[in-house]
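Task card 7
Instruction: Convert sequence to structure tokens.
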Amino acid sequence: MNGVNTVSVPGRRPAAGVGLRLVGSQPIRSEAELEYSLPAAGRVELALFDAAGRRVADLAGGWHGAGTYKARWAAQSHPAGVYFARLTLDGRISTTVRLVLLSG
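Output:
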């Protein structure tokens, strides 16, 4: 899985069939491409958080049909560290992927 760690959230039931993965390998130096798949249409939110839980970027949002999509994160302006990309479908946390960013 290219060194990507998926993190489950205790007490929250994920939306079934939703996928999120990093395209490429870790660590990331300047840009990351994420691919996400939806089994059904719904309201999507793909956001990036730093290790302290602060929202640092919105990568995708709004109504999406079923299918596979890609989003890019231009990481150059962010400090090195651990980040989490969180995908929600219809308000339910579906999956979270850990990203490791190295400085340029």
